[in-house]
Specification:
2 domains; 44% helix; single chain; five-stranded parallel sheet; Rossmann fold; 306 residues
Amino acid sequence: MKDLMLPARVALAVAGTAILAAVGCTAVTWHPPSPISIAIATSLTGLSGAAGAESLLATKLYVDEVNRMGGVNGHPIELVLFDDSSNPEVGRANVQTVAESPCVAVLGHYLTTVALAVGPGYQAARIPALTGTASVDALTVDNPYYFRAQTPVSVQGRSTADYLRHVFKTPAVSLLYSRDSFGQSFLKGFSEAYDTDRFVARGFDVGPDAPSDAVSATVDAVADGPEPGIIVIGTAVDSAPEVLKAARRRGIKAPVMALAGAGTQGFLQNLQTEPEEKEHPGFFSDNLYAATPVIFDGRGGPGFCG
């Protein structure tokens, strides 16, 4: 009997050795899943540096949570930072670097002007991009690679008009808008919802080719006319401070309503550096309103508003 048991024991020993060898081989050659690289392209410096830093922090908090839960199909998410310096030209110059990186998608940009500048580059490189703040209508038109988690500018213009009608009781409005795609979209939405005899729209040029006195000339036209009930600034956040400063320096005391960017820390910090604000706190920021866009939940049902 003992002689018959020997081959079985040998076979088991050989099988066990083979299994251990296989496990050992696997342990030596196993590598953790490769990370999924995502570019976060935002304004970490410049006019909107503070707001961009806040968005970066929020993104990191969420990504850390996802990675703690095991990542995406076992792959951790890795954020790769690209600072556009709140400047369209810098953002455009970064596109090629993003395209040559291992990043599979882009989160950004913070500013509408930068997003518009980089959009064609992302489309040409076939890199999907998602912005949580850039809201100009033209950004996603004819560009299947750019996505927006934000209310379009034209809708913001309409909601601003509705708010002024229902809360401010339809005051006389001086609408100062930029003659770019952002301002034109805002003007279109506002005009659809506000009484035409209750507002006057005045446009000004923006960008590197715009006259240096474009904004001041527009504000002078307002200052030389009847005092408006309220001034509405229909332009991107990187141009809005110049309009506000020009209006207050011309002695216009009327309330001013700008878009959501006017409520950010970076916007207010920009005002605080001016000598008038240092000498008289509130010189620029008093009577300043920031119109926050709202996305209503359309699913309905208990627990949802719409």
